[in-house]
Amino acid sequence: ALGACLPAPATPSDAAGRPGLSATNAATPAPNAAPAPALEVAVASSDLAVGAERFAFGLMDDQGQLVPDARLSLAFFRIEGDQAIEAGRAPARYFAAPAGASGLYVAQTRFDRAGVWGLEVSGTLAEGQALAPQRLRFTVAGRSSGPALGEEPPDIDQAVLEEGGDPRSLSTDPHPDPDLYRMTVAQAKRSGRPSLLLFATPGLCQSEICLPVMEEVKAIKARYAGRINVLHLEVYASLNQPGELSPAMKAWGLNTEPWVYLLDARGRVAARLEGWAPAAEIEPLLQPLLP
Q1: Distance from the first to the final alpha carbon of the chain
Q2: 3-state class (DSSP) for residue 68
Q3: Mind listing the pLDDT tens digit for each residue in 230-260?
Q4: What is the pTM of this model?
Q5: How far is the C-alpha of 49 from the C-alpha of 46, rounded, in Å?
């Protein structure tokens, strides 16, 4: 489920290379230690760019199953020729997901240049076993495809729910909340209140992530009623089958799903979360935006 709507995991040939940072994703046991399990880091962030970023990934065993609750530390490296220069470290927090969906490890970092970067993941598994360093490469763009932190995203004047209308005409959610379809993005940006925008397709999601994220967003709406705008926008132009992306997705340059965007009271991007995004991660980012 982790990779169904997200980029494929990096392969061993993509791993970072410098003395001491060899090309491998597989765990290598330390001398005189029990062999570590064969694990793989699956990057779940498809739109990494220069600046502050949320780096999300899964840790998978040799059966393709998520390895949860590890205590992990990340080291990021700029790749320059055959050298890897350390450019930052960050802890990773695990956010569990409901049954049928994949949780994610998330770290906050900053990239100071575009190009090829290296990652080294180390730490301890939930059972207490030390994790041998896991290494891979990934690419950072000069500019993100979707709206970046601090930017004012494009207006969207999507269809909204008319008085007495059926929200199922605008949503694949099996139990749509009419309140999520009463305001356009353009109106939300100019409302003077923070906004939470969910780009997701609960009924057509190829993974099982969209509906769980929708439920998290509904819970946030209930807790912050009257203080924030909460909008849901569908991913595809059709509500009946996946295919062409919706005008909203195209306008914002989004190609994967789901996405959660937080806008501040001025309508500028304050946070963006791709893939699994629980309330436990969203709320600490939302609270500083509240009046």
Answers
A1: 37
A2: coil
A3: 999 999 999 999 999 999 999 999 999 999 9
A4: 0.87
A5: 10
